[in-house]
Specification:
With about 240 residues, the chain is α/β, with parallel strands linked by helices. Helix content is about 50%, strand content about 15%. It has 2 domains: about 140 residues, Rossmann fold, CATH 3.40.50; about 90 residues, P-loop containing nucleotide triphosphate hydrolases (Rossmann fold), CATH 3.40.50. Strands 1, 2, 3, 4, 5, 6, 7 and 8 form an 8-stranded mixed sheet that branches. It binds 2'-deoxycytidine-5'-monophosphate.
């Protein structure tokens, strides 16, 4: 195993809980890299839809994942957030399309895909100085992470946040539909046979329902600064 230069900070939690915002804030403050692993499942889903692979055909989807040239790098030079590039293309906006969101849980339930992407994620994080978020980072990808966070919030609060985001962006939004979609995604994540979303026993659990995402990031940073393995530059 490569010697870690900084901490591996693993974060899990349900959809729409603010893991990316919080993870990005924590990484920036520590001078670490940040990666949202959901983007990898989404990127593969998007590619599969683009090239017309049957997403129910598990072997074909795994074969596609292995054929793709995966890269993780910041969009802007010096940025701390690593974005997913496949075959040289940054797929940041296309992976947010509705059809990708709907189909990504099918791809995420494919055991061969999970094995393949978990390995990529370990390679990306094993050197340390990274905040990685997803659904199985604390339990499967980095069960030996230096810091484990489980971020939670009620489905109603997550739906409200999404509703306010869409409204602020001048988009149409139906709160009930958003809530129904969140409950469906929770169910998919929790009932998945392989690497379902669950709280690691040793995770620091934060309920963000009544907190701002900046308050959550501060809580995590305070916790890290108190920890024995705190890197000197983070104190
Ligand atoms: O976080 P997200 O909604 O963008 O994730 C997209 C899909 O990938 C979603 O179906 C959950 C799944 N996922 C996963 O199974 N494991 C991860 N580590 C990250 C995401």
């Amino acid at each position: 195993m490569t010697k870690r230069k900084g901490l591996v900070i693993a974060m899990d939690g349900p959809a729409g809980v603010g893991k990316s915002t919080v993870g990005g804030l924590v990484a920036k403050s520590l001078g670490y890299k940040f990666i949202n692993t959901g983007e990898m499942y989404r990127a593969l889903t998007w590619k599969g839809l683009e090239v017309g692979v049957d997403l129910e055909d598990q072997a074909a989807v795994v074969e596609l994942a292995k054929k793709i040239d995966w890269e993780f790098k910041p969009i802007e030079e010096g940025g701390s957030t690593l974005k997913t590039f496949i075959d040289g293309v940054a797929v940041t906006s296309q992976i947010r399309e509705e059809k990708v969101s709907i189909n990504s849980s099918l791809v995420a339930a494919n055991p061969g895909v999970r094995k393949f992407l978990s390995k990529l994620q370990r390679e990306l994080g094993e050197g340390g100085s990274i905040v990685m978020e997803g659904r199985d980072i604390t339990t499967n990808v980095f069960p030996d992470a230096d810091v484990k966070i489980y971020l939670d919030a009620s489905p109603e609060e997550r739906a409200d946040r999404r509703y306010r985001q869409l409204k602020a962006a001048g988009q149409e939004a139906d709160r009930d539909k958003i809530l129904a979609a969140i409950l469906k995604r929770d169910l998919n994540d929790l009932k998945r046979e392989i690497n379902p979303l669950k709280q690691a026993e040793d995770a620091f659990v934060i309920d963000s329902t009544k907190l701002t995402l900046h308050e959550v990031a501060d809580k995590i940073l305070r916790r890290i600064r108190k920890g024995a393995k705190t890197p000197s530059h983070a104190r």
